[in-house]
Amino acid sequence: MSNRLPPAWAKHLKTQPSTKAVSPKAAPPKAQPKVALSRTHADDMLLRQALELQQAERLPEAEELCLRVLARTPEHPLALYILGTLGLEFDSEKALRYFARAVGAEPRNPYYHLSLGEAYLKVSEFSPAIRHIQYALAMKPDMVEALCALGNTYNVFDKGEMALPLFEKALKLARDHPLARIGLSRALANLGRMDEAAAHLKKAVERRIEVPAAYYALVHTRKYTEEPPELAAILLELRDPNHGSEGAAALHHAAGKVLNDMHRYKEAMDHFKKGNQAAGHKFDLENYRRWVDAMIETFTPELVASTAAYGNPSELPVFVVGMPRSGTTLTEQICASHPDVHGAGELSKLRRMAHGIGLGDRSNANFGESIATISPDLTRTLAEEHLAYLRERAPDALRIVDKMPHNFELIGLIGILFPNARIIHCRRDAVDNCISCFVLQFSKAHSYSADLQTLGLYYREYDRLMRHWGRVFPGRIFENRYETLIENQEEQSRRLIDYLGLPWDDACLRFFDRDGSVNTPSRWQVRQPIYKSSVKRWKNYENEIQPLIQSLGDLAEA
How far apart, in whole angstroms, are the C-alpha atoms of residue 462 and residue 482? Predict the structure, then answer.
């Protein structure tokens, strides 16, 4: 989210004398609490410096200046707002609190409601996200950013049909606005309207709007059987240094995708590697290993048995977990094709709960204190809160699927909160799974996938943790092997539905005909009947991926 200054504040700050951004320690401003006007002027000067420091990515210094303003003026709305934007990427909970205080201090400011809504969206709290963005639009109906934010919320909420008119209105107001142009194409793609999405993305390229992102999205709207003109255009764009590292990453991945479609695998892998290098993501594998050690040591069969009586007995929740690109979306679509099942997509609610009790902190190698806080009352409260959150999405469903792959890390917490919840573990050929991660432009949250050797070692930690959960919850976790599902769709689909405790419905065989939108990188694949071309795909890259195969070790042969 960009730091959108409300026009009144922007105009006000621009009238202040120009200042050079300096370290707050180097030139501490002098407060004049006895004179209100001077204090306001001093606050404005500090906030101007904070904005300049934020733009220079000197975030700790920007934060310190804002906190100085709050020390004098505790509910200064702009200081609270800036602090919210500083924390949004790293600490969503803190950002929520700051934006909420900004709204409380200035409740008629549409920009503060918009930012609060976007912060709620970041933590998968869709109802308050929608409510606050709608407040912003009620106060400022032609606010393009708010129209796009509401459209994006519906996109993430798998309500692409509700997103379309919002993006269309935004485009009428500002036809070159990147959020509107790219957002509209994403909504169309989520709904399976790939040709229309491609047409809008081509217009974006023509009008030089978010060119790398537009090309990356464009090449994922279809499969290529022969070289398209887009490939030469993408390679030409890669010569432009103005796209920056993030743009270069998107363009390399786009080129790799086209080349892979055309079976030019060596060239494709070269671009995938360059794309991941350009992104520059780093992953602390040793820290992650220690975290997995701590989870295994903490969540013992004895612990889970001692807390089982306190959980909620509901059978509503279904958790689909596993590595990304292991068939989680396909599995969800098959289940959600059943009339009694709702697919809720990727929800971060469980992880948010885990963070709240200290289980999500990777720097915490001792979960004993965190587990000690999970009293019977807290267990019941957290479980009921989560059920209410799920029911909000589909009040009449018998099962609601939360398809967040990385919830594999939190199966211990799931077992404590919901002893009768279904857990479907999607597993795929290890090398195929890792390659499928490597070739996508993943966010920083998946930084383990940016390097082949690290990716293989990370996969081993995932496998180690899943084997532990299998011992802690024997017979409770349904392992859905991707290759088995591909080989015998009906038989494995029937097993899935039986595991959910529901009667069979033939609609589950035609998952690709489902209405509604799909907001994952698999949006194209899950709209096709099952195909086998992705099985043993890694053989196409065997010579280029030896670091991955070596780091996987015996798992590469499993």
Answer: 17
Residues 324 and 322: their CA atoms lie apart, in Å, by: 6
Q: What is the token pair recorded at 424?
A: 């479907």
C-beta separation of 158 from 519 below 8 A: yes
What whole-number distance in Å separates Cα of residue 279 and Cα of residue 247?
9
515 Cβ neighbours under 8 A, 6+ residues apart: none
Pairwise CA distance, residues 502 & 494, whole Å: 10
Return d(Cα 200, Cα 5) in angstroms, integer.
Answer: 29
Q: 3-state SS of 232-279?
A: HHHHHHCCCHHHHHHHHHHHHHHHHHHHHHCCCHHHHHHHHHHHHHHH
Q: In DSSP terms, which residues pair with 422 in a beta bridge?
A: 318
Question: In 3D, which of 500, 470, 116 has the Cα closest to residue 342?
Answer: 500
Where on the phi/psi map is residue 475: left (φ > 0), alpha (ψ -120 to 50), or beta? Answer: left
Q: State how far Cα 342 lies from the chain centre.
A: 20
pLDDT values of the chain reduced to their tens digit, one per residue, 558 residues: 556 666 656 555 554 443 333 333 333 333 333 333 345 788 889 999 999 998 888 899 999 999 999 999 999 999 999 999 988 777 788 899 999 999 999 999 999 999 999 999 988 888 999 999 999 999 999 999 999 999 999 988 778 899 999 999 999 999 999 999 999 999 999 888 999 999 999 999 999 999 999 999 999 999 999 999 999 999 999 999 999 999 999 999 999 999 999 999 999 999 999 999 998 889 999 999 999 999 999 999 999 888 878 899 999 999 999 999 999 999 999 999 999 999 998 998 999 888 888 887 776 666 767 777 788 999 999 999 999 999 988 999 999 999 999 999 999 999 999 999 999 999 999 999 999 999 998 888 889 999 999 999 999 999 999 999 999 999 999 999 999 999 999 999 999 999 999 999 999 998 877 555 555 555 445 445 555 666 778 888 989 999 999 999 999 976
CATH architecture of 1-141: Alpha Horseshoe (1.25)
Question: ∠ CA(102), CA(445), CA(88), 5° rounding?
Answer: 5
Tell me the two tokens of residue 324: 């990304």
Distance CA 399, CA 394 (A): 9
CA 117 to chain centre: 16
Q: Where are the alpha helices (DSSP H) in 408-541?
A: 411-417, 430-438, 452-472, 482-487, 489-499
Per domain, the residue ranges of the chain are 1-141, 285-557
Q: Which two tokens stand for residue 440?
A: 């996508």
Q: Does domain 285-557 have CATH number 3.30.470.20?
A: no
Q: Are the C-beta atoms of residues 45 and 66 closer than 8 Å to each other?
A: no
User: Burial code of 310-323, b = ≥16 C-beta within 10 A, e = fewer?
Assistant: bbbebebbbbbbbb
Residue 56 identity: A
Q: Comparing C-alpha atoms, which of 212, 397, 444, 418 is closest to residue 311?
A: 418
The DSSP code for 358 is T
| pTM (two decimals) | 0.84
